[in-house]
Structures are given as C-alpha cells and as structure tokens.
Amino acid sequence: MNLQNLRVFLKVAELEHITRASEELHLTQPAVTKIMQSLEQEVQLDLVERQGRRIVLTHAGRVLQTYARQMFSLEREMDDALAALRDVHRGEVKLAANTTAGVYLLPSIVARFRGLYPQVGLNISIWNSQDIIEHILDWSLDFGIVEGEASQLPAGLDVRFFTRDALILIASPTHAWCGAEAIHPSSLERRR
C-alpha cells in the first residue's frame, strides 16, 4: 500500500471533504478522488460514503484510519530515533573499568562504540571497582564496568548485568588438589 495515498486518505478522513483535503495537500480535487478510488480498489472495500458534500468513513474506513494513524505515529518515532542518532556528533563519554573488564571486555565495547559514534571522544580509565562506584555517584564518570554482585551495589545506580565471569583454579600435577573433582572455597583461605 502506498504511504502517500494513506496520507491523502487520512487528510480526507480528518476534513471529511475531498475539496478541502485537496487544497491542504496542494493536489487537484480529481487527483484526490482518484487516490481514494484507488485505495478502495486495493482493499476491495468502500472506505467513504458521500453525504451531500461531506465524506463519512465507513466501518472499513475507520479501521484503515486507525491503522494508518498507528503507522504514521511509528514513522514519526522512527524519524525521531534516527535524528537523535544523527545528532550525536561530538562530546565526550567518561568510562572506567576494573582491570579484568578493562583487559577482556572493554576492547570490543570500545570498538563497537567507535563504529556507532566516531565523533564522540572516549575518556577511559582503569580503576578498582570501589573507585568506579564512587566516581559514578559523584557524577565524575558517565559509565563504569565493575565486577561483583549487583545486590551489593549502592541504591540509586542504574545497574545492568551483562556477562558472567568463571574463575578456574590451576594446580601443579604434584599438588594435593590435583585430580580433585571439587574444592571448597574455604580451602583456599587456609593455604595462604
């Protein structure tokens, strides 16, 4: 279905008059009439009824009007979202990560960000998790990547969990733990 024809239909529905719609759309009255007839042929339903010089929507016309409004509302949302992306030309984002995240996660995040926002500067720091949290809370950082339990972080932070880390214990082939299927974490504390 031609979106321009739907726009014409919506204007006719709004004004309930073909001549007034043609004037607002800067089209001839026969062009608007032809578009309306074309739409009716396409959907194989009558969309309007003439009541004297006025146009009244049929039930099918009201259904089409509802969906057309939704489509154009979505089109406006899309345009706004794309405009917001076009407007990201400059500025700076301050980001910090702890050592592990900085080594293993940050390179791919930075590469993706650079691809999306090449004109935005990145100020990246590597700090411990507690320093990152403090700088986020005092607004000197925009984003931080830390390790830990989300439930242990201060209230008021917008926290997004995005990956899980697995720690693996490695021991010498002659160590007492070699071959053990499981080792309780408290065993690690006693070996210090």
Q: Mean of the pLDDT scores?
A: 87
What is the string of helix and strand elements? HHHEEHEHHEHEH
CATH fold-type name of the domain at 3-86: Arc Repressor Mutant, subunit A
CATH class term of the domain at 3-86 = Mainly Alpha
Question: How many strands, what sense, and barrel or not for the largest sheet?
Answer: 3 strands, parallel
Number of strands: 5
Family: Belongs to the LysR transcriptional regulatory family.
InterPro entries: LysR_HTH_N (IPR000847), LysR_subst-bd (IPR005119), WH-like_DNA-bd_sf (IPR036388), WH_DNA-bd_sf (IPR036390)
Organism: Dictyobacter vulcani
Keywords: DNA-binding, Transcription, Transcription regulation
Descriptive notes:
- It is a single chain.
- A hairpin with a 2-residue loop joins strand 1 and strand 2 (54-57).
- The chain has a domain at 3-86: Arc Repressor Mutant, subunit A, CATH 1.10.10.10.
- Helix content is 50%, strand content 12%.
- The chain has helices spanning 3-15, 18-25, 29-43, 59-86, 99-104, 106-116, 129-137, 185-190, and strands at residues 48-51, 54-57, 92-97, 121-126, 143-145.
- The protein starts with a helix and ends with a helix.
- The chain has a three-stranded parallel sheet. It has a two-stranded antiparallel sheet with strand order 1-2.
Brief synopsis:
By secondary structure, the protein is mainly alpha-helical.
Write the layout of secondary structure elements.
Elements: H1 3-15, H2 18-25, H3 29-43, E1 48-51, E2 54-57, H4 59-86, E3 92-97, H5 99-104, H6 106-116, E4 121-126, H7 129-137, E5 143-145, H8 185-190
Parallel strand pairs: 3-4, 3-5
Antiparallel strand pairs: 1-2
Helix pairs in contact: 1-2, 1-3, 1-4, 2-3
Family: Belongs to the LysR transcriptional regulatory family.
Protein name: HTH lysR-type domain-containing protein
GO molecular function: DNA-binding transcription factor activity; transcription cis-regulatory region binding
